[in-house]
Amino acid sequence: MADRQLRKDKKMSRDTTFQFSLPPFRGAVRYLILFTLAVWIALVLLWAFDRPDAQFLLTIGELNPQHVLHGWVWQLLTYGFVHVDPRHIIVALVGTYFIGSAVQERIGSRAFAELYVFSSVLAGAVGVLISLTDRVGIGPALGAGAAVNGVLMVFYLLHRGVSIFLFPFPFKIPVEWVVVAVGAIEGAYFLLNNFALFFLVSLLGLGTGFVWYRLMWRRATVSGAIQTRAITIRNSYYRWKRERAKKRFQVYMRKHQQDPKQYFDEYGNFRPPDEKEKDKKDGPAGWVN
Q: Which DSSP state fits 172?
């Protein structure tokens, strides 16, 4: 069913044009934008009137691999909401509003919030691990670059083959070109800035968006994916217990010089008894396997 729906989505998205207009400002997109903007305004005001407190807030909020490795794990979440450069936050908020609103309309508000946070946290965690090389992932990281790039990747995966009108260009641009261009620009900044963690996590955001789509989207939410996985593991455990019990019973029957095939079919189910035996033992209710 999911495969047919996916093929249908791909067919509908081919050779179509997606033009960004002002989408409704609602759901997780609104809350994420307002929260990010509030944190930035607080940082700017503190930087103007109480710089030590601003520096302290920046220190505990940005992603610093050394701090994370010493227990400041909350930075994997908080760094995505911390911005300093006005140009950086404008790009992040505009991307979240236009691209994020289109993705939110497809997957729902809750799933979008999980996508946003998942992309940022996973990119930050991978960036911290890479920084252990002491050659790549240098310095701190902050901003919603990883989350927005994850949203962009999911937008592409949901609208493959779509061309979009993107300001200020007066012509249609295939969405895959936008993804490639963003990856190339992030990669160039990463190389030109001595493999900085700041640009590394933004680049990793494209990959985390792909991971979320593959693992989570068709299962609705992260919690749904975890629940589905838990059910799969539980069922596998029960199958293993049944197979183990079957083998032990077969060993027991062989020890007593009886053929287990008299009692089990090729699928491991009990064979029904003979008609006479069934009438004697089961009565009118019949045999139940």
A: E
Count other C-beta atoms under 10 Å from residue 255's C-beta. Answer: 8
If DSSP codes are grouped into helix, strand and coil, which group holds residue 141? Answer: strand
Strand order across the 163-165 sheet: 17-19, 163-165, 172-174
- Kindly give the residue spans of alpha helices, DSSP state H, lying in 132-221: 145-158, 175-192, 197-215
**Domain-wise residue ranges, the chain:** 2-220, 259-289
Q: What is the topology classification, in CATH, of domain 2-220?
A: Rhomboid-like fold (1.20.1540)
Q: What is the pLDDT of residue 129?
A: 95
Global confidence as pTM? 0.71
Torsion of CA 104, 198, 80, 19, to 10 degrees: -20
* CA–CA distance, 283 with 36 (Å, rounded to integer): 72
Q: Are 107 and 55 in contact (CB under 8 A)?
A: no
Measured in residues, the chain has a length of 289
Q: 30 and 41 in contact (C-beta within 8 Å)?
A: no
Q: How confident is the model at residue 161, as a pLDDT?
A: 81
pLDDT tens-place string over residues 52-82? 999 999 999 999 999 999 999 999 999 999 9
- Which of 106-109's residues contact partners 24+ apart within 8 Å by CB, and which partners? 106/158, 107/154, 107/158, 107/217, 108/220, 109/26, 109/27, 109/28, 109/29
Q: SS3 string of 13-26? A: HCCCEEECCCCCCC
CB 141 within 8 A of CB 201: yes
pLDDT confidence tier of residue 258, bands split at 50, 70 and 90: low
3-state secondary structure of 85: coil
Which residues, other chains included, contact 241 with Cβ-Cβ below 8 Å and sequence gap of 6+? none
In Å, how far are 90, 100, 134 from 94, measured between CA atoms? 6, 9, 34
Q: In DSSP terms, which residues pair with 165 in a beta bridge?
A: 19, 172
